[in-house]
Amino acid sequence: MSPTAPLQAAFASTRAAMAAVQADQMSAQTPCAEWDVAGVINHVVGGTQFFIAGMKGEQPAEGQDWAAGDYMAAFDQAAAECVACFEEEGALEKTVALPFGEMPGSAVMGIAMTDVFTHGWDIAKATGQSTDLAPELAAGILAQSQQSISPEWRGPEGSPAPFGAEQQCADGSCAADQLAAFLGRQV
Predict the structure, then answer these.
(1) What is residue 92's three-state secondary structure?
(2) Least confident of 33-42, 62-71, 151-160
(3) Is residue 182 within 8 Å of 166, Cβ to Cβ?
């Protein structure tokens, strides 16, 4: 299996959720209190651009309203470019400087995968789609997140901390719902 296969699967999962969004759902509230569906779409495309810039040692571009245009084409292009960055020779081993610290490319890829997958869950949840997304991938991201997310990475929404407090999740919930709850979302 290619080292980027999980990242590619995360992009595919989120792409499916984004493709099912109807125009009248763009203003629907998401589990991210700060963003509606259009805001999450802008974050997903912009976040992918952020990781591309980081891998290239460049500054990320300023925000753009991708949701107002052909956001699927923008997402597809960004996803392909992002995967290509991580497939370059030595990309997973090199040290990457991001605004929140330096880390190996493999860690950056893990963050990118978690971010894009989780925001796909946000979109699915907000638009009434099934949240049982890519069960095997979700279980892997959950296990990885449980190992790597420490308490200092948690805080109230809107704070500099990227994750909220872990939330309760019903017994027997799908892995994607468990991941969302672990990352601070109400499931």
Answers:
(1) coil
(2) 151-160
(3) yes
Residue 171 lies in a domain: no
Give residue-wise pLDDT tens across range 15-47.
999 999 999 999 999 998 889 999 999 999 999
Q: What are phi and psi of 129, to 5 degrees?
A: -85, 165
Nearest to 120 by CA among 136, 132, 109: 132
Within a domain: 58: yes
The CA radius of gyration of the chain, in Å to the nearest whole number, is 16
Cα–Cα distance between 47 and 49 in angstroms, integer?
5
Q: What is the pLDDT of residue 62?
A: 79
Domain encompassing residue 67: 5-132
Q: What is the pTM of this model?
A: 0.94
Question: Can you read off the two tokens belonging to residue 162?
Answer: 């990227």
User: Residue 6, CB half-sphere, CA atoms under 13 Å: how many?
Assistant: 20
Could you tell me if residue 121 is inside a domain? Answer: yes
> How many domains does the chain divide into?
1
**What's 84's domain CATH number?**
1.20.120.450
Beta bridge partners of 97: 102
Q: Record the tokens describing residue 84, joined without a space.
A: 């290509």
Cα distance between the two ends of the chain: 32
The answer to whether position 163 is within a domain reads: no
* Strand extents, DSSP E, the chain: 95-98, 101-104
